Every structure is written in structure tokens, then in C-alpha cells.
């Protein structure tokens, strides 16, 4: 049994004395100890070495006190395992030297054997579970097929993923073939993570909001739904779609246990659009962590009052920014722990 089960209770919609809190991208970036490891080992070495991935995963538990851990890894290990080369260029971010641009490129993409290509992730999960000693739950994750396609086709980060959209709209048959291969790989990958011991999984659709509501259904949601269908009877699934407020109704009826929302909608609108029953997770503006700690605490208390303490997981509306002072991240978490329902 996990000692701090607030997060798991919130996922089930059970009554809690206060909501649980964790932060997207909490493992890394803004933590000084992480930066020291970053000087010594490159990104994928950190991902592929279970001892390093474990050490980074537990850092925010010990240093910030979040109620859940998220495994240190990246959504782009999936395209890597599918025969698409991925580099992480310091100062640039993801870099794919041979992006997917044609139907022939899609044919060369494989649906890999998970143990063979991503066994190191399962080793990191098993080691992290031991290290956590049942103190807090461990979250596993994957990118949504659409978000992975964005990087696989664009070849790097982008403000609008124009090349990815062009590929989908000029070559929809090949795009759907690619999305299905990513979906099949992701389902096998998340099932392996569940077998290795994660307590919940989150699907990051970071770029779903780039699509119109109609295109979102066709190129993103359809595939996320397949993943939820395959996992929901085994483990709680959190679906996070940045900018995807227009799809909240559909998402709320998908079998997901919780929905992540960004900071562009009010708690009231998020509850309204999602039908008022499902657990919501979010939605503090990550830039608001630049505010002084006292102001952060005031705003977090207000956010909890607006969402309500039950069926709610306190989080940011997207990943924590790299230059947030550790004491500000701590103020965010402390405000939740000090919360008293009024
Ligand atoms: O939550 C956690 O801290 C767990 C680890 C985690 C990483 N990436 C580590 C990482 C998670 C959950 C991710 C998810 C991820 N990766 C997403 C979805 C969430 C989101 O932010 O939208 C996306 C889009 C990526 C792709 C990616 N990886 C980008 C765009 C970058 C470069 C920019 C950046 O974030 O610094 C990465 C690199 C990356 N992934 C780093 C970390 C800690 C920084 C690089 C490094 O440490 O060398």
C-alpha cells in the first residue's frame, strides 16, 4: 500500500482532506542537483541509466515535497525506438536529423519490441519504485500520437508545427498510418510500464491545441481514445491536452480518470465543459511561479477554492520553467499542504 495516497484517491474522485499536488516536468530543469548531473551526462544517458533516472525522479519528492513522482524520461524515446533518430541538442532541444516527410518514410518506421528497445525505462521504473519505498505513487507517461508526430515530421520544436500540419493535410493516408504505428507502440509501452509498477499514466498532448476542433478529432483524439480504451481497466489514465478546452466534453466521457487543463480557462469553465464530475488537474500559469512566494500561496489557495478540494489535483497548466527559483516551487507545494477548506 502507498502511504501518501491522496493522488490515487483524487483520481478515484474520493473525498480528501486536501487535494494532492505535483508539477508537470518537476523532475529536472530548475533543480540545482539536476543541473550538476546535466554537466556530467548527456540527456539520453540520463534517461538510459536507471540509477540516474531514479535519482532525478526522486529529487522533487525530497526537495519540494510533491505528492506524486513522475519518472524522469522523455516522450521522444518512443520515436527513437521506432527507428526515427532523435538527438537532444543543448540549447536547442529535440533535433531529428531525418524527419518523416513521405509515405516511404512512414514505411520505414517500425512498431518495435518494447522490452528490446525500451527495457531501460522498465528497469528505471523498478528501481524508482524501490527507492520510493511506497511513500508516494509513481506516474508513467507518454506523448499523444499527434504530439509525437509533430516532432517526427517537423524535426524540431516549433511555434506552429507547420510542416507537421502540412504533412497531415496533404498526405492524410500516410499521416494516419504513422499515427496508428505510434498508437500501437504507445499502448504496448504503457502496458509494459504498468507491469513494471507505475501507479498511474499521463498522456501529454502538448500540441493538440494547434489543431482546429474538427482536425483534433481526426488527428489526435481518435488515437488518444484508443490508448485510453486499452489501459483504463488496468490503471488510472490522465489525459492532458494543452489548448484542448474545446474537447473537454468528449474527454470527460472517454474512460480517463482525470483531465489536465491549462491556465487559459477558469476553474468554472473547466468544470462546466467537462460536465462537473470528472477529476481535473491543473492549471496554474507556469510563469506565475515568478511571483513572490506570498503571492503564489495566495493564488494557489484561491485556485483550490475555485476548483474545489475534491476531484481535483493541483498542478501547473504546463511544465515548470527552467529558471523558477526552488523556493517558489516549494511555496506552490506548501500552499496546497497548508490548505484548509473553508
Ligand atoms: O515531468 C518530468 O519532469 C519528467 C520528465 C519529462 C521530461 N520531458 C524530461 C526532459 C517529461 C514528462 C517530459 C515530457 C515532454 N518532453 C513533453 C511533454 C510535456 C511538455 O512539456 O509539453 C515534450 C513536448 C517533450 C519534448 C522535449 N524534451 C522538449 C521540447 C525538450 C527541450 C526543452 C526543454 O524542456 O528543456 C525536451 C528535453 C527535456 N526533457 C529536458 C528534460 C528535463 C531538458 C533537457 C535536458 O535536461 O538536457
From TrEMBL:
UniProt site positions, description: Transition state stabilizer: 74
Top class in the EC scheme: lyase
Catalytically driven reaction(s): uroporphyrinogen III + 4 H(+) = coproporphyrinogen III + 4 CO2
Pathway, per record: Porphyrin-containing compound metabolism; protoporphyrin-IX biosynthesis; coproporphyrinogen-III from 5-aminolevulinate: step 4/4
Domain Uroporphyrinogen decarboxylase (URO-D): 20-29
Assembly information from the UniProt record: Homodimer.
The protein's name in its UniProt record: Uroporphyrinogen decarboxylase
Amino acid at each position: 500500500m502507498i502511504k501518501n495516497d491522496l493522488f490515487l484517491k483524487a483520481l478515484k474522485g474520493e473525498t480528501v482532506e486536501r487535494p494532492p499536488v505535483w508539477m508537470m516536468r518537476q523532475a529536472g530543469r530548475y533543480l540545482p542537483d539536476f543541473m550538476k548531473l546535466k554537466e556530467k551526462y548527456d540527456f539520453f544517458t540520463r534517461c538510459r541509466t536507471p540509477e540516474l533516472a531514479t535519482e532525478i525522479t526522486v529529487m522533487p519528492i525530497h526537495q519540494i515535497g510533491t505528492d506524486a513522482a513522475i519518472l524522469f524520461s522523455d516522450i521522444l524515446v518512443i520515436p527513437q525506438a521506432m527507428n526515427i533518430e532523435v538527438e537532444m541538442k543543448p540549447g536547442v532541444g529535440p533535433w531529428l536529423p531525418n524527419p518523416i516527410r513521405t509515405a516511404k518514410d512512414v514505411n520505414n518506421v517500425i512498431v518495435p519490441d518494447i522490452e528490446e528497445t525500451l527495457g531501460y525505462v522498465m528497469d528505471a521504473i523498478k528501481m524508482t519504485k524501490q527507492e520510493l519505498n511506497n511513500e508516494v505513487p509513481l506516474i508513467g507517461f507518454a506523448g499523444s500520437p499527434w504530439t509525437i508526430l509533430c516532432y517526427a515530421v517537423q524535426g524540431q520544436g516549433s511555434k506552429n508545427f507547420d510542416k507537421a500540419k502540412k504533412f497531415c493535410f496533404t498526405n492524410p493516408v500516410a499521416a494516419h498510418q504513422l499515427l496508428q504505428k505510434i498508437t500501437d507502440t504507445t499502448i504496448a509501452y504503457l502496458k509494459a510500464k504498468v507491469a513494471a509498477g507505475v501507479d498511474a499514466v499521463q498522456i501529454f498532448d502538448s500540441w493538440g491545441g494547434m489543431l482546429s476542433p474538427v482536425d483534433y478529432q481526426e488527428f489526435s483524439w481518435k488515437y488518444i481514445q484508443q490508448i485510453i480504451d486499452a489501459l483504463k481497466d488496468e490503471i488510472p489514465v490522465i489525459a492532458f491536452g494543452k489548448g484542448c478546452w474545446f474537447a473537454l466534453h468528449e474527454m470527460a466521457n472517454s474512460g480517463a480518470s482525470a483531465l489536465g487543463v491549462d491556465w487559459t480557462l477558469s476553474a468554472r469553465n473547466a468544470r462546466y465543459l467537462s460536465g462537473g464530475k470528472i477529476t481535473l488537474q491543473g492549471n496554474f500559469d507556469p510563469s506565475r511561479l515568478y511571483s513572490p512566494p506570498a503571492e503564489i500561496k495566495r493564488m494557489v489557495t484561491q485556485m483550490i477554492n475555485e476548483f474545489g478540494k475534491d476531484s481535483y489535483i493541483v498542478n501547473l497548466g504546463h511544465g515548470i520553467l527552467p529558471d523558477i527559483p526552488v523556493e517558489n516551487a516549494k511555496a506552490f507545494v506548501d500552499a496546497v499542504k497548508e490548505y484548509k477548506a473553508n
